[in-house]
Amino acid sequence: MLTLSGRSIESRNLPDNPARMVMRVSDRQDRPRALRAREAFLVANGDIPDGFGIYIAFAKDVEALSSVPCQTKTMILPDDFGYLADGDVLRIWAKSSEVRVLYRRASFHNHFLLTERCNHYCLMCSQPPKNIDDSWIVDDVLAAIPLIDPSAQEIGFTGGEPTLLGDNLFRILRAMKSYLPHTAIHILSNGRLFADPEFAKRYAGIRHFDMMVGIPVYSDVSTIHDYVVQADGAFDETIHGILNLKRLGQKVEIRVVVHRQTYARLPQLAEFLARNLTFVDHVTFMGLEITGFTRANLGSLWIDPADYQDELYRAVSFLADSRMHVSIYNHQLCVLDRGLWPFARKSISDWKNEYMPECEGCREKENCGGFFASAKIRYSDHIRPISL
To answer: For a tag on the chain, would you pick the N or C end, based on fewer CB atoms within 10 A?
Structure first.
């Protein structure tokens, strides 16, 4: 598991104002001078060019900073950050010397948390909501977008509930379209605000070439869905939101987290989706991430994935037979019915994707989705290496 946030071992001459600095990492000595002030130069060996906003070294390379002028802004980071490379983007809190990696150029799993506020209280929420003023996040995201490599394939936006940002969400999406016109956008949302036709029209008005909203639908029964998300009336607003988005030609993905409260009616949910929302662009069935509220509610949520293979197989098969695009995320191949393997994807973000000791010697390890790092708390009793 990669370290994405932490504190510097030592920092010097960092300013109190601005309190946060969003900077692109560079290891190139030929960077144009006009760009250097907003960049953090990785010091290793060789000549150290001047003009960069800050100079960073890892603990193993700390001696390389000895040739940096004494009044220069510097940070020494733990070697856990040694994966940092040219083109990555950091947020640095000057006062506390905290560092957060916002974007990694070499990764296909880059996303931004836009807010911790939410109008749901999902039983298995991996990012428990907080009723706080975190509007400063928008400023940091807007500062980071121009620093992202234009060749980035996709950027994700999560929460909390991103649509609660209102105008600021549209500011971010317009900035993405302006600075990264060839980068796909994926937004995780509960979809409820799109039930407002005017809000849905503003979203569609961005006219982005590849923008998708991933929206959860946990049951074909409204009361079950509302119970899982802990919000009365959520099901109706979510379905209306999906209909509004598709009416406007927008891409929509349906996400179904499978657990003890949702697995039994997976076949009925699949039939509901195929008959009423056959025009959505993707449906995915997802395994639990055992973090956040999931830990607190694990007793009422956990079911061994091996025990719901019949329901999952029937649901996926029905959707596939209905010519809908369907996938399975966050599941291990050794647990899945063999007939479901063509639908399984390696979906877990690379920075938190791990494998268990039982996986050693498995010939399908490279093709398997693996585990969330948090899965050490609880995972299937049926994990085993697949041999010839």
So the answer is: C
Please enumerate, as own/partner, the contacts of 226-234 that have beta carbons within 8 Å and a separation of 24 or more.
227/123, 227/261, 228/122, 228/123, 228/124, 228/261, 228/262, 229/120, 229/121, 229/122, 229/123, 229/190, 230/120, 230/121, 230/122, 230/123, 231/119, 231/120, 231/121, 234/120, 234/190, 234/192
pLDDT in tens, 46-76: 778 999 999 999 998 888 787 787 788 999 9
What is the per-residue pLDDT for 14?
87
Is 321 exposed, middle or buried (CB count within 10 Å of its CB: 0-12, 13-18, 19+)? Answer: exposed
pLDDT of residue 95: 85
Q: What mean pLDDT, rounded, does the chain reach?
A: 95
**Phi-psi category of 148—alpha, beta or left, where left has phi over 0 and alpha has psi -120 to 50?**
beta
Residue 167: what pLDDT? Answer: 98
Tokens found for residue 180 = 């990264």
CA angle, 22 as apex, 126 and 111 as ends, to 5°?
A: 30
The whole-angstrom separation of Cα 142 and Cα 132 is: 20
* Average confidence (pLDDT) over 284-296: 96
Q: What is the pLDDT of residue 120?
A: 97
The CATH number of the domain covering residues in 5-103 = 3.50.30
User: How do beta strands 89-93 and 98-103 pair?
Assistant: antiparallel
Mean pLDDT on 306-328:
98
Hey, where are the domains in the chain? Answer: 5-103, 111-377
Peptide bond between residue 214 and the one before it cis (omega within 30 degrees of 0): no
> Is residue 259 pLDDT above 80, yes or no?
yes
Regarding the domain delimited by 111-377, which CATH topology (the fold level of the hierarchy) does it fall under?
TIM Barrel (3.20.20)
- Locate 68 and state its tokens: 């940096």
How far is residue 214's CA from residue 210's CA, in Å, rounded to a whole number? 13
CA 128 → CA 25, 171, 288, distances in Å?
31, 25, 15
